[in-house]
């Protein structure tokens, strides 16, 4: 493999993937009984710079998640075969799957806020090319869920233990596909967009025994083009995947959205993402803006500048968990519409910036904390405790965990190689009264508390993150919320 291929997923490669502007006269339709056409911006009319900046600001914000996912597709087109980028990140050409065979490593920079509770897989699909077949093995009693989201990061499939999904073959098709469904396909799921993402998650205990036991079942997980379907289960030893390149070395997530390239990429993204009901005017304004920018270099320069300003002043601050969602007691917060954002553009972009590819709320309930119970920013210079009273662990039918992320929403390497605590950990020690105390600090606690220790980066800000997989009603309706993160002042 040559050097260019080996370093495919870099900022330089992403910057070179910009698509040309595709000028198109804007039209708008409304869903009336007569399908009456509503006049939109007139092609060729002058547009003031101030107005162009106004439209650019809104367009950049609501389209940011779509461009984010679309650039992942462009990056995956550079991948020669399923493998591991840098030996740690599962990557594959579009419409193919790559899987890990263990927890993800802390050096991963492909997706912010990974977890170390599951074995992950990853695929970017392009249903313009072909429908894809998804294999579901018999997971037994093991928790699993397959996440499938469209270009907007909205979910469109229901596959997992909580759905009672039976082993077999399933089909993902695009919005315009009307072909013949082969015999042997249990169910068809239609995506609202041709481009999207597929992420299997399979729970695994943090024990050598379960690491060995999970291999047989994950080997039968699959996603591949319909043309490869023969009714037989394809088996893959994911531990033998090839490695590409040396991986990412930056502290932050790969920069999937570049304001300088955004307007060149947007036309293709709009073409791949049909408007939702009521969005026709947004699309018409965006296309008119693109046409004006193509005609007038001054307008183009203005909206490129406005994109950079919007990224810095609107999008980047949403990286902090305390800037979006619903505030909860003790300075936790949460969202209730993950992967079901619809026209909630603020939350969609905030989640895409801070922790993209969240599950639907019935699959996973997320709770975030940037601050302790007193409102002070969490920092590794302090020591904290999180105590779940007896009978007050996160209410789940699946599993739960408390994960720690550094200031970039990734794991900070530590000698224990421990980045979360929860159901997967079989040596947690409970207090005499039945409560469970977890110790969040940079230095090791007393020896009798080390099994309950969640290491924090020394003298650095961090965040805590509770996941409740297959949540029960108290976690969904707010009856249960996480306990306070208490700073040890001794």
**CATH homologous superfamily caption of the domain at 321-487:** Domain of unknown function DUF1214, C-terminal domain
Whole-number mean pLDDT: 93
Number of strands: 22
The CATH architecture of the domain at 321-487: Sandwich
Using the coordinates above, name the CATH class of the domain at 321-487: Mainly Beta
Class of secondary structure makeup: alpha+beta
Termini distance? 56 Å
The CATH topology of the domain at 321-487 is Jelly Rolls
InterPro entries: DUF1214, DUF1214_C_sf, DUF1254, DUF1254_sf
Domain DUF1254: 94-225
Signal peptide: 1-25
Domain DUF1214: 364-473
What keywords describe this structure?
alpha+beta; Immunoglobulin-like; six-stranded antiparallel beta sheet; 9 helices; DUF1214; DUF1214_C_sf; DUF1254; signal
């Amino acid at each position: 493999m040559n050097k260019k291929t080996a370093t495919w997923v870099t900022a330089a490669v992403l910057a070179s993937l910009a698509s040309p502007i595709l000028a198109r006269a804007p039209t708008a339709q409304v869903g009336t009984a007569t399908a009456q056409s509503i006049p939109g911006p007139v092609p060729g009319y002058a547009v003031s710079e101030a107005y162009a900046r106004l439209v650019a600001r809104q367009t950049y914000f609501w389209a940011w998640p779509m461009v984010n996912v679309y650039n992942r597709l462009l990056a995956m087109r550079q991948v020669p075969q399923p493998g591991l980028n840098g030996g740690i990140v599962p990557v594959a050409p579009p419409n193919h799957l790559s899987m890990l065979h263990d927890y993800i490593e802390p050096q991963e920079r492909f997706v912010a806020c990974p977890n170390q509770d599951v074995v992950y897989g990853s695929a970017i699909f392009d249903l313009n090319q072909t429908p894809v077949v998804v294999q579901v093995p018999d997971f037994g009693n093991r928790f699993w869920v397959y996440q499938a989201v469209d270009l907007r990061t909205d979910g469109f499939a229901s596959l997992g233990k909580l759905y009672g999904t039976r082993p077999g073959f399933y089909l993902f098709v695009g919005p315009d596909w009307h072909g013949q469904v082969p015999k042997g396909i249990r169910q068809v799921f239609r995506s609202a967009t041709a481009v999207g993402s597929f992420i299997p998650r399979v729970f695994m205990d943090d024990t050598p025994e379960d690491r060995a036991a999970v291999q047989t079942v994950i080997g039968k997980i699959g996603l591949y083009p319909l043309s490869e379907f023969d009714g037989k289960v394809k088996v893959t030893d994911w531990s033998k995947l090839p490695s590409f390149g040396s991986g990412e070395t930056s502290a932050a997530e790969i920069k999937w959205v570049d304001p300088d390239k955004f307007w060149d990429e947007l036309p293709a993204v709009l073409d791949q993402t049909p408007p939702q009901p009521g969005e026709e005017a947004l699309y018409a304004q965006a296309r008119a803006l693109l046409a004006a920018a193509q005609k007038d270099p001054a307008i183009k320069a203005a909206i490129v500048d406005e994109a950079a300003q919007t990224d810095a002043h609107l999008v980047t601050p949403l990286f902090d968990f305390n800037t979006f969602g619903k505030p909860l007691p003790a300075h936790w917060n949460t969202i209730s519409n993950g992967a079901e954002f619809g026209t909630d553009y603020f939350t969609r972009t905030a989640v895409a910036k801070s922790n993209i590819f969240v599950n639907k709320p019935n699959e996973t309930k997320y709770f975030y904390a940037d601050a302790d119970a007193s409102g002070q920013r969490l920092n590794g210079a302090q020591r904290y405790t999180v105590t779940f009273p007896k009978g007050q662990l996160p209410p789940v039918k699946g599993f739960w965990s408390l994960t720690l992320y550094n200031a970039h929403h990734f794991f900070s390497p530590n000698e224990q190689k421990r980045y979360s605590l929860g159901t997967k950990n079989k040596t947690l020690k409970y207090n005499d009264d039945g409560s469970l105390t977890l110790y969040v600090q940079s230095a090791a606690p007393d020896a009798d508390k080390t099994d309950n220790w969640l290491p924090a980066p020394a003298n650095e800000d961090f965040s805590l993150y509770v996941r409740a997989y297959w949540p029960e009603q108290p976690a969904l309706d707010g009856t249960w919320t996480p306990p306070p993160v208490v700073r040890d002042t001794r």
